[in-house]
Specification:
Layout lengths: L1 H8 L8 E17 L2 E19 L2 E7 L5 H15 L13 E4 L12 H18 L3 E19 L4 E18 L5 E10 L8 E5 L2 E6 L4 E2 L2 H6 L1 E4 L4 E6 L9 E6 L2 E3 L3 E2 L3
Length: 268
């Protein structure tokens, strides 16, 4: 792919002051259950990109959804930049960068069949449904997405970055005493493989035994005040908005590990 993009941009290096192409190619799987019913199974492939050009201080940007139209879209971007450019282009001097950033894979979900993924999520859903008779329904979903982003420009840079996002979400709605309805949600995110989302007790400054339930209860403002340490391991991954049926509307989730004193975990 990168060679194809470099060849496409080569004839236009001297046509404008600057031009770049960004392309993202991805494949995605999504599976969801609602109660006992399989709600959705999706498998999709996508390719989209954008071209940015600058000439005499005028910038343009165009998009495309297939490589067949790449040449026409490059020429459109250059034409628009020439149309609006009336000044001088001033760009910071940078050396060309050649790099390939590969994802560090654990167990690659692309090597698993759709059936295997469905069976795994179905089993998690069954465990939730059978955990307690008060549970009325569940919402369980799985998503993996592997994408490759390509960047080439007229100054000779070519950068390729792989990205893998895996997420699973688990929700249960239960009806308890006096008909009070309660709901709980948990999620797991990884950029390489499934990682259990587990809370750990800290004893004498060291990580000790895992805490099985990481649902925090109490006053949220007091909980925030009780944070007494924040790690330097901030990590954000892609997730999905779960309210109002908006899933899989893409959102980012994440942050650093935090230490909270006197926190109530799982109601205890």
């Amino acid at each position: 792919m990168q060679e194809q993009l470099q060849l496409a941009i080569a004839p236009y290096r001297d046509a404008v002051d600057y031009v770049e192409i960004r392309v993202e190619q991805s494949e995605q799987t999504a599976i969801s259950f609602r109660g006992e019913q399989l709600d959705a199974v999706d498998r999709s492939l996508s390719l989209a990109g954008g071209i940015r050009a600058c000439h005499q201080g005028g910038w343009s940007f165009v998009t495309f959804n297939g490589l067949a139209e790449l040449q026409d879209r490059i020429e459109a971007a250059i034409s628009q930049a020439r149309l609006v450019g009336k000044d001088t282009t001033s760009l910071a001097p940078l050396e060309p960068i050649q790099d390939y950033v590969a994802v560090e894979l654990g167990r690659d979900p692309r090597g698993l069949s759709l059936l295997e993924k469905r069976q795994l999520i179905a089993e998690y859903n069954r465990l939730l449904l059978e955990y307690d008779p008060r549970i009325q329904t569940t919402m369980v979903g799985y998503r993996d997405r592997f994408g490759i982003t390509y960047f080439v420009n007229s100054t000779g840079s070519c950068i390729v970055q792989e990205r893998l996002d895996i997420s699973a979400r688990f929700g249960a709605i239960a009806r308890g005493d006096e008909g009070i309805v309660r709901q709980g949600f948990e999620s797991v995110h990884s950029r390489s493989d499934y990682d259990a989302l587990v809370g750990y007790m800290i004893r004498n400054g060291k990580i000790a035994e895992p805490v099985s339930d990481v649902t925090l209860t109490g006053n949220v403002f007091q909980t925030l005040k009780d944070i007494d340490a924040i790690g330097n391991d901030t990590l954000y991954v892609s997730g999905g908005c779960g309210k109002g049926g908006q899933m899989p509307l893409a959102v980012s989730v994440g942050g650093p590990h935090v230490r909270i004193k006197d926190v109530v975990v799982g109601g205890r």
